[in-house]
From TrEMBL:
SUPFAM superfamilies: Lysozyme-like (SSF53955), PGBD-like (SSF47090)
Domain (Peptidoglycan binding-like) ranges: 155-206
Chain ranges passing through the membrane: 99-121
Iron in keyword set: no
Region called Disordered, residue ranges: 67-93
Alphabetical list of InterPro entries matching this protein: Lysozyme-like_dom_sf, Peptidoglycan-bd-like, PGBD-like_sf, PGBDSf
Record flagged with keyword tRNA processing: no
Keywords: Membrane, Transmembrane, Transmembrane helix
Name of the molecule in the record: Peptidoglycan-binding protein
Source organism, top-level taxon: Bacteria
Length: 317
């Protein structure tokens, strides 16, 4: 639907999203599933998807990824940086012919709830949020743990606190991919385990404003990239824009629980090789210099194969 609405062909959309046109055709046709949600997100963004459509795409991708079946698929392997462990070894996969009965039921239930206008809140009803034991919304029994997929006042409070900590996100009460990224970034900056849910420790840190999410603007990031990548500044900026939209606090979860971090989306495995940590990866200067170290191995951008289109077709300014 997004592709048709855009009025553009697979090759052009693929170039803008940083993926080959043939791969994009397979994804849109349901023949295979991207191992990396970033591909789905980038495609949706270039098609002008709304925030609601992005959330629905993430839900559908998560269902499909859960039911992925391992198997040889010579024409559809994940690129090195987007393999689940980030080691550079492609993992072949094949899209199952149909979702399992369990996921099909989950999808059907979700669709019914969305159409009916119901909201599901683990551990309580939406009204429970107003009966907090204290003055703080997240002290309510209904807000025991706030995580992906919730839509209620508990989520809205988490989002409000993240914005107060200088995080940039919409306060809409919907715990989608953007809230997940910002919450994960806050946890790392606050020195907490990156659980990707607002657990008790995270709620306390949010109310205490234990961390600030103030960071560089995209313009500042691009300027620093050009200063570090003196050999090929335009291409380096294009790759970073493809990888993270020049967002120093960008986080991308992989299907096996590992993550990619920061401006150049450095994977957990690469961080270990570079003697880095997720918190260091959120420092844009460190991240850019670390990416340059990776570039220096072969003097090319082989560590970012999914952004090959950006090297050729993205504006290098």
């Amino acid at each position: 639907m997004l592709k048709d609405r855009s009025g553009r062909g697979y090759d052009r959309l693929g170039k803008e999203a940083g993926v080959s046109g043939s791969s994009l055709h397979r994804y849109c046709s349901g023949l295979s599933v991207p191992a990396d949600y970033r591909v789905v997100h980038a495609f949706a963004k270039v098609c002008g998807a709304s925030a609601e459509e992005l959330r629905e795409l993430h839900r559908l991708w998560a269902l499909a990824d859960t039911d992925r079946e391992a198997g040889p698929a010579p024409d559809d392997v994940t690129p090195p940086e987007n393999t689940p462990d980030g080691t550079g070894r492609p993992r072949p996969f094949r899209m199952p012919e149909k979702l399992s009965s369990r996921s099909a039921v989950l999808a059907a239930v979700a669709a019914v709830l969305l159409v009916a206008g119901f909201v599901w809140l683990p551990g309580g009803s939406p009204d429970d949020a107003s009966s907090a034991s204290g003055d703080k919304v997240l002290d309510s029994p209904a807000c025991k743990s706030v995580s992906m997929g919730q839509h209620d006042e508990c989520v809205r409070e988490v989002q409000t606190l993240l914005v107060r900590a200088k995080g940039t996100l919409a306060v809409d009460g919907d715990f989608g991919p953007e809230t997940l990224r910002r919450l994960t970034a806050f946890q790392v900056l606050a020195g907490l385990p990156a659980t990707s849910a607002a657990d008790e420790a995270t709620k306390k840190a949010l109310y205490a404003q234990k961390a600030s999410m103030t960071t560089w603007s995209p313009a500042e990031v691009a300027k620093r990239i050009r200063a570090v990548f003196v050999e090929d500044p335009g291409t380096a900026v294009a790759v970073a824009r493809c990888a993270s939209f020049l967002d120093p606090l960008y986080v991308l979860p992989n299907s096996n629980g590992s993550r990619n971090w920061g401006v150049f989306q450095i994977s957990d495995a690469r961080l270990r090789e570079l003697d880095g940590t997720p918190r260091r990866a959120f420092d844009p200067d460190w991240n850019i210099k670390a990416a340059h170290r990776l570039w220096s191995v072969r003097h090319d951008f082989h560590d970012w194969p999914s952004c090959q289109a950006a090297l050729k077709d993205s504006p290098k300014s």
